[in-house]
Amino acid sequence: MNTVCAIVGVGPGNGLALVRRFAREGYRVAMLSRDIDRLKGWEQEIPGTHAYRFDATEGERAHAVFKQVREDLGAVSVLLFNAGGGVFKSAEQVTLQEFEDSWRINCYGLLATVQAVLGQLREHDRASLVITGASAALRGRAATAPFASAKAGQRSLAQSLARQLGPENIHVAYVVIDGVVDLPRTRQAMPDKPDDFFLSPDAVADSVWFLTRQARSAWTFELDLRPFGESW
């Protein structure tokens, strides 16, 4: 089995937890994000990892970056799209540029990445594409107009990919993150919240790993993850 995993959007939360999980399972892990210096530090710390600078909003660079990944590590068999972000404002408050920026990272960035990596995924008997989503993809609150619409578009794109690529034995799954991820900055912002209020990045990574190991006869397309105390 070819064990090359590419993770787009590696930061100190879910992204880094995904890196550690797949590296621990013996994958050669390509870590991609805008902050190459931070990635280089993790590359020294975590065996089997390799750092690449990639901004998902710069889609024109995707083919060159993933060509380099293939030359260095081999063809990607697991692609995890963890890049995301957006502005939390109402439709009245948000600027057109902020609205477009939310779309570029969540939808445009996903499409550009998939177009660059799809040929590599097709080289394997089985492959996986897992996208980190958000509960905003399912409901638009008053102050989430740009973020929710971008995430809803991302979810629809993921569903389209799942229907197209499933017959090729490429499992596409969308993970709905519903809750606050446990990070130093979120802990600092919410010092009175108990431990079980937060989503554990390691637990999220375990769930993503499970998705990539599912039997084809019982694939999951959408998996929602939340602490028990989250209001839903």
Automatic annotation (TrEMBL):
Transmembrane segments: none annotated. It comes from the Bacteria. Pfam families: adh_short. Gene3D superfamilies: NAD(P)-binding Rossmann-like Domain. Signal peptide: none annotated. InterPro entries: NAD(P)-bd_dom_sf, SDR_fam. This is SDR family NAD(P)-dependent oxidoreductase. It comes from Halomonas nitroreducens. The lineage of its organism: Bacteria, Pseudomonadati, Pseudomonadota, Gammaproteobacteria, Oceanospirillales.
